[in-house]
Design a protein that fits this description.
The structure holds 2 protein chains of 2 kinds.
Chain A: H1 6-29, H2 46-53, H3 55-89, H4 95-103, H5 110-128, H6 136-161, H7 165-172, H8 177-205, H9 209-214, H10 222-231, H11 236-265
Chain B: E1 10-19, E2 22-32, E3 37-41, H1 48-56, E4 63-68, E5 71-72, E6 83-86, H2 98-109, H3 113-126, H4 142-154, E7 160-164, H5 172-189, E8 192-197, H6 200-206, E9 209-214, E10 217-222, H7 224-229, H8 234-239, E11 244-254, E12 257-262, E13 267-272, E14 282-287, E15 293-295, E16 306-316, E17 320-327, E18 332-338, E19 353-357, E20 364-366
Parallel strand pairs in B: 3-8, 3-9, 6-7, 7-8
Antiparallel strand pairs in B: 1-2, 1-4, 4-5, 9-10, 11-12, 11-14, 12-13, 14-20, 15-19, 16-17, 16-19, 17-18
Helix pairs in contact in B: 2-3, 2-4, 3-4
Classes of the chains: A mainly alpha, B alpha+beta.
């Protein structure tokens, strides 16, 4: 049954407007020639050019990309291992609790995650003398902990849909367990691993709260830099950098859903 | 045992498998000879799949041993057994082409690449899939997938090929065709096949010997003919084919023939019998529907194995007709008759009074 009443259409339009008008306006104003953020002064790429001259910003962007790349890679590897372990545990008692605990960070308020990680790092420094300084390393570790939860969820749903006799067939044909893992399991999980990695990458890239908690002097990620800058007043180059981040995230999410859907329909 | 037969290819020796409280396979012993096409037949949950998975090495027996070609395989992992399994789901690797699927086992064995190419091509030619070598499994029909799975499991030249419900996923027409093809390939290669199935037709037409499994135990082992015509017990009689089971009271014995009286049919029955059940003992006799003759006149000169009744139900299948005849006491007997003469009119109609009769040799005496 399909009802296409004007009321319904306008509600949907309103909802989408709420979601996308702010984003679209940021994108549009990033091409604004005017120095004033709210006044249209013609098309220009000058704010994009000015980004290249802002060394602090480039440095922050580079750090963010580096952290995102590292944390996504670690989170994917660890998350996949956890998902496999949970899958193979089968009906072991306590599995429900374990899997619940793995995914809890998904709903944990970021403030709490950030704060508890900060406490952890401080007491670790006291007890074992590491990490002496908080910075890129501690941010990366923090990002791994919450990204991992997403990877576990994605990989487990893929595992649940996988025909287990595939691995048995490979073993039956002479594949030793490790060979079976790389010949069959990893290729079958590849879509989940790719989308898990991209998800972790984007999550890390735009995390502000947790990064702020566990960062130290000298380690400023891009979101932290932008946030600090906005507090002194919004300048048009913020629009430009935001547009770039939106493009990057959209690309990552697009690839992730493409990879997942293509394999699923196959 | 002074058996002149060569040692069996597969010896299952007192194998039991328990999953927690559940006994899936209960003290099963079975010998399978080289070159046999052996079927393990049973309803779902009878333990046949567990037995198959123990032969493949995916499950370890709780007790007992499995020998293949004289070597103890009980603790050998699947990747070191000279055994291959064709999975019910076929389990084709979706990220590999047909050719890569078939080549996988040889690659793991370390066969040199030129030989792999040769043997894969040979195998694909045998299952008539040569032109599809470059396709991915998702682009294949059900029958083609089945043939890829067969080629993949045979290319390593296993001593023993296990097939888990090989025809279950195919439609009826294709199944009949594939059945003969499978038997043909088995004959060509001489590989020992063990087929697990719940489908009695599949087991009967494919196999040279059948083991009927029931509740984790082997109920009977024999040729299809033996299992059908000489069922060892009530379960086998009822599971394989249609049958009429009748309770009777022993009334006497003479010349190796046993006479019984059946109250439910109000008839005296006669069966060939070697052993002597005590007079008055209650036994079960069984008669296959196609062994019974249905007629409107009383058969001349016979007073035993004759039942009077009324046709209650009639199914016309063209080549044969199926009748359900109710005796006066209410017991129902199934009869099937070939329609040998061409006629649009049936010889026996609904509500006709009929006589059912059968030969002494057709009465099956079941003690358990």
């Amino acid at each position: 049954m399909r009802i296409r009443s004007p009321g319904l259409v306008s509600i949907v339009a309103f909802g989408y407007a709420l979601l996308y008008v702010p984003i679209v306006s940021v994108v549009i104003y990033s091409f604004n020639d005017s120095r004033l953020v709210t006044l249209w002064g013609g098309f220009s790429l000058r704010w994009y050019a000015s980004l290249l001259e802002d060394e602090k910003l480039l440095e922050a962007a580079l750090l963010s990309l580096r952290i995102a790349f590292l944390s996504a890679s670690f989170a994917t590897a660890l998350g996949a291992i956890v998902a496999l372990a949970l899958h193979r545990l089968g009906r072991l008692r306590g599995r429900l609790l374990l899997s619940g605990m793995v995914t809890a960070p998904l709903v944990m308020p970021e403030i709490i995650t950030g704060l508890s990680l900060l406490f952890l790092f401080i007491s670790m420094a006291d007890l074992i003398g590491w990490p002496m300084n908080r910075g890129a390393t501690t941010i990366t570790i923090a990002h791994v902990t919450f990204s991992m939860a997403y990877v576990v969820v994605v990989v487990r749903s893929r595992l649940a849909a996988m025909d287990e006799s595939l691995e048995e067939a490979a073993m039956d044909l002479g594949g030793r367990p490790l060979a079976v893992f790389f010949d069959v399991t990893v290729p079958m999980l590849l879509p989940a691993l790719v989308s898990g990695w991209l998800l972790s990458f984007t999550l890390s890239l735009d995390d502000l709260v947790i990064s702020s908690f566990v960062s130290g002097p000298g380690a400023t990620t891009l979101p932290m830099y932008i946030f600090a800058k906005v507090r002194l007043g919004v300048t048009p180059d913020i629009n430009a950098i935001t547009t770039l981040i939106i493009a990057l995230v959209a690309l990552a999410v697009g690839i992730a859903s493409f990879v997942t859907n293509r394999r699923r329909s196959a | 045992m002074n058996d002149p037969q060569p040692p069996p290819l597969v010896r299952i020796d007192g194998v039991t498998k328990r999953f927690g409280e559940v006994t899936a396979v209960d003290d099963v012993s079975l010998d399978i000879q080289k070159g046999e096409l052996f079927a393990i037949l049973g309803a779902s949950g009878c333990g046949k799949t567990t037995l198959l998975r123990m032969l493949a090495g995916f499950e370890q027996p709780t007790s007992g041993r499995i020998l293949i070609d004289g070597a103890d395989m009980t603790d050998v992992p699947p990747y070191e057994r000279p055994v291959n399994l064709m999975f019910q789901s076929y389990a084709l690797f979706p990220h590999m082409t047909v050719e890569q699927n078939v080549a996988y086992g040889l690659k793991k064995e370390g066969v040199p690449a030129p030989q792999i190419r040769e043997r894969v091509a040979e195998m694909l030619a045998m299952v008539k899939l040569g032109p599809l070598a470059g396709r991915k499994p998702e682009k294949l029909s059900g029958g083609e997938k089945q043939r890829v799975a067969l080629a993949r499991s045979l290319v390593k030249r296993p001593k023993l090929l296990l097939l888990d419900e090989p025809l279950a996923a195919l439609d009826k027409k294709l199944r009949e065709h594939t059945q003969f093809e499978l038997a043909n390939i088995q004959y060509q290669l001489g590989t020992t096949f063990v087929v697990v199935t719940h489908d009695q037709d599949e087991a009967m037409t494919l196999a040279s010997r059948i083991a009927v499994m029931h509740e984790g135990k082997i109920a009977q082992v024999g040729t299809p003919g033996e299992v059908y015509e000489y069922p060892a017990n009530r379960y086998v009689a009822g599971f394989v084919g249609n049958i009429n089971l009748i309770e009777g009271r022993v009334t006497g014995r003479a010349n190796g023939r046993l006479t019984l009286h059946c109250d439910a049919l109000d008839a005296d029955l006669e069966a060939a019998c070697e052993e002597v059940p005590a007079a008055g003992e209650t036994v079960t006799v069984a008669v296959r529907p196609e062994k019974i003759t249905i007629s409107r006149e009383a058969p001349a000169g016979a007073d035993r194995n004759v039942v009077k009744g009324v046709v209650r139900d009639l199914g016309y299948f063209g080549d044969q007709s199926l009748y359900r005849v109710r005796a006066r006491s209410g017991a129902v007997v199934q009869v099937s008759a070939q329609n040998l003469r061409r006629s649009a009119k049936l010889i026996v109609e609904w509500d006709d009074e009929v006589f059912l009769s059968w030969e002494v040799g057709s009465t099956i005496l079941l003690r358990t």
